């Protein structure tokens, strides 16, 4: 599905600093890129609601079809999620999501039972009621009924250790958000959480090696981070296949190592831009392509059910 462009009406309560100012006087706060709706000469009152129109650009996503439905039970739906589509609405994706696309396929009320990153493909269970979703999660938190999850990742053959057959990674994981600044990064870095992934070599040819990954904990980007730290990042991972920058940062959380990641992210961002702005709102336009990541949830076992999906790589 290509990128979406549309207008959206947004409403916000009048802020204290706007009281007794004319609508046109606060227009600057809205960047001049959006249109305020109403009488621009009118003074803003405490009870006013400010209504404005914004131009929304949503990046392109993959499309889910009926062929991607693995099972349709009374309590839940299981799909084979394609890479390149987020599950939930986020800042950049509002209509271009798994739940929105499934509405169009006749499933109006779904509650995703766990997360798969936007770029990760594979087995995804979605509850048909919030009650079932919470029952599912309670089951997973109980050691006796904990679910079993497996992934398959593809890396460059020349990055894997010579004698690699199986490997356990126990490197603790911290939340990494490059937009939070160095001070906040240090706080996040010092809040490392125990993590474990087991890796098994499935097959290897001259170019690629396919690795089976078993999760014992479920931290954000756990497999991508562990493979990156081990020096065998997923080959098409735009974030963690970074020439060792993330591994360096884990070793030495210096401001230089942090800045190196920032610089790389900025270069990556520019590479995805068309080099032109939207005539309506002035934002930088991005290329109409969907990124892929060779990371696939290949098995999910819960409550007597086992769902398996082979990756297409
Ligand atoms: Zn625009």
> How many DSSP E strands?
15
- The residue fraction in helices comes out at 10-25%
Distance between the termini: 21 Å
Mean pLDDT: 92
Low-confidence stretches: none
Largest sheet: 10 strands, mixed
Structural class comes to alpha+beta
Indicate the radius of gyration in whole angstroms: 23 Å
Ligands bound, unique: zinc ion
Give the helix tally: 6
Shape: globular
Number of domains: 3
Order of helices and strands: EEEEEHEEHEEHEEHHHEEEE
Q: How much of the residues is beta strand, in percent?
A: 25-35%
Organism: Starmerella bacillaris (Yeast)
Domain Pseudouridine synthase RsuA/RluA-like: 75-228
GO molecular function: pseudouridine synthase activity; RNA binding
Protein name: Pseudouridine synthase RsuA/RluA-like domain-containing protein
Summary?
By secondary structure, the chain is α+β, with helices and mostly antiparallel strands. The protein contains six helices and 15 strands. The protein has three domains: 55 residues, no CATH class; 85 residues, Pseudouridine synthase (2-Layer Sandwich); 153 residues.
Question: What does this protein look like?
Answer:
- With 313 residues, the protein is of the alpha+beta class.
- It has 3 domains: 55 residues, no CATH class; 85 residues, Pseudouridine synthase (2-Layer Sandwich); 153 residues.
- Helix content is 19%, strand content 29%.
- It has 6 helices and 15 strands.
- The strands form 3 sheets. Strands 4, 5, 6, 7, 8, 9, 10, 11, 14 and 15 form a 10-stranded mixed beta sheet that branches. It has a 3-stranded antiparallel beta sheet with strand order 1-3-2, with no helix packed on it.
- The chain is globular and about 75 Å long.
- It starts with a strand and ends in a 5-residue tail after the last strand.
- Bound molecules: zinc ion (ZN).
- Zinc ion (ZN) binds next to strand 3.
């Amino acid at each position: 599905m290509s990128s979406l462009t549309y207008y959206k009406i947004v409403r916000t309560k009048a802020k204290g600093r706007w009281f007794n100012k004319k609508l046109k006087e606060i227009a600057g706060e809205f960047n001049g890129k959006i249109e305020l709706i109403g009488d621009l000469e009118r003074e803003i009152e405490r009870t006013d609601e400010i209504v404005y129109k914004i131009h929304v650009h949503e990046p392109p996503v993959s499309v889910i079809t009926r062929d991607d439905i693995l099972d349709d039970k009374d309590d839940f739906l299981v799909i084979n999620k394609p890479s390149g589509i987020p599950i939930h609405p986020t800042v950049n994706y509002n209509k271009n999501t798994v739940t929105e696309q499934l509405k169009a396929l006749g499933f109006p009320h779904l509650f995703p039972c766990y997360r798969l990153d936007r770029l990760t493909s594979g087995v995804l269970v979605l509850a048909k009621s919030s009650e079932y979703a919470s029952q599912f999660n309670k089951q997973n938190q109980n050691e006796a009924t904990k679910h079993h999850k497996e992934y398959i990742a593809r890396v460059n053959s020349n990055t894997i250790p010579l004698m690699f057959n199986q490997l356990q990674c126990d490197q603790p994981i911290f939340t990494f958000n490059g937009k939070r600044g160095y001070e906040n990064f240090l706080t996040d870095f010092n809040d490392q959480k125990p993590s474990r992934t087991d890796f098994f070599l499935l097959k290897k040819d001259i170019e690629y090696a396919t690795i089976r990954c078993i999760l014992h904990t479920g931290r954000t980007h756990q497999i991508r981070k562990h493979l990156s730290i081990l020096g065998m990042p997923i080959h098409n991972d735009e974030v963690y296949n970074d020439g060792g920058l993330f591994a360096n940062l884990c070793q030495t959380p210096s401001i230089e190592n942090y800045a190196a990641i920032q610089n790389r992210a900025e270069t990556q961002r520019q590479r995805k831009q068309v080099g032109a702005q939207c005539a309506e709102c002035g934002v930088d336009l991005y290329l109409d392509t969907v990124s892929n990541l060779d990371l696939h949830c290949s098995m999910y076992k819960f409550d007597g059910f086992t769902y398996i999906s082979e990756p297409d790589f």
